[in-house]
Write a structure and sequence with these properties.
The chain has 105 residues and is an alpha+beta fold. Helix content is 41%, strand content 15%. It has two domains: 45 residues, YefM-like domain (YefM-like fold); 36 residues, no CATH class.
Length: 105
């Protein structure tokens, strides 16, 4: 059915939002084209690797905040925490509500 030229068409909000596509690939395909799929993840695309029947993995770039620390940094943080505990710089947590408050939930 054609609409007159002067009519107004209303479009639902969900229709106007950008829809992000998710690509699902096999682990074999990922092994064969790793660079291709990692580049697509770097460009904001969601890639899911499906392995066997009920096993899937989502590729996500690691940010600077999520970077793993070295073994030396890890043990230095433990030593620092132990020193703080010896100095009494601790907080006693007695229930789950206090844990949630401490973590900002």
């Amino acid at each position: 059915m054609l609409q007159p030229q002067n009519s107004i068409t209303f479009v639902p909000v969900w229709y106007t939002k950008k829809i992000t596509a998710m690509t699902i690939i096999s682990s074999r395909e990922f092994r064969e084209k790793q660079k291709h799929y990692l580049d697509r993840v770097d460009n904001g695309e969601q890639i899911v690797i499906q392995r066997k029947r009920n096993r899937s993995y989502k590729l996500v770039p690691v940010t600077k905040e999520e970077t793993l620390m070295t073994e030396e940094e890890f043990f230095a943080k433990i030593d620092h925490s132990l020193q703080q505990a010896k100095e009494g710089k601790t907080k006693l947590i007695s229930d789950s509500f206090e844990i949630e408050k401490l973590l900002g939930f």
